[in-house]
Design a protein that fits this description.
Number of helices: 4
Structural class: mainly alpha
Radius of gyration: 16 Å
Low-confidence stretches: none
Order of helices and strands: HHHH
Shape: elongated
Helix content: 40-55%
Largest sheet: none
Strand content: under 5%
Number of strands: 0
């Protein structure tokens, strides 16, 4: 990872530092994205349209 080399730290340190900025303290998963997409495309979603949905663990609200 180039950034880790630039900072002269390990990749684990970069990951830990990044996770500290995310309120849920974890990364999103492909499965989480899929569940969100499935809901938006399903009949259960009968009212949401034309929105930008952030799947970011609360990062934008925290900043």
């Amino acid at each position: 990872m180039p950034y880790a080399r630039q900072e002269n730290v390990g990749v684990e340190d970069i990951i830990a530092r990044t996770l500290e900025t995310i309120p849920l303290r974890r990364y999103g998963t492909p499965e989480g994205y899929a569940r969100l997409a499935a809901f938006l495309l399903s009949e259960e979603n009968d009212y949401v349209s034309g929105q930008q949905v952030l799947y970011d663990g609360g990062l934008v609200v925290a900043n």
